Fold:
Amino acid sequence: MSETSWHTVTIRVPFANTKHATIAMQAIDVDPELQRDAVKRTLTVDGNDLVASFATSTVRLARLTTNGFLENVDLVARTIGEFGEDSERK
Structure:
């Protein structure tokens, strides 16, 4: 499949600081995509933002990959909120 026929999605997720964005990236990056030949994922940290870019072979995979990523971000963000260094001040 040529690169021009891939569907791309880029998501920027803001965090409180760079450390939290990096923790989120490291936690999510350990799980590979299930369909490596059909989904290409790139995770980076830009300032306080976690930036995820996906290239998928179908629109359906773009939706599924995006949903799965956002579920993981939600879990990581809630975990950081509950157990992160700021939780000791509560």
In short: Residues 56 and 62 are 6 Å apart (CA to CA). Strands lie at 7-14, 39-46, 49-56. The radius of gyration is 14 Å.
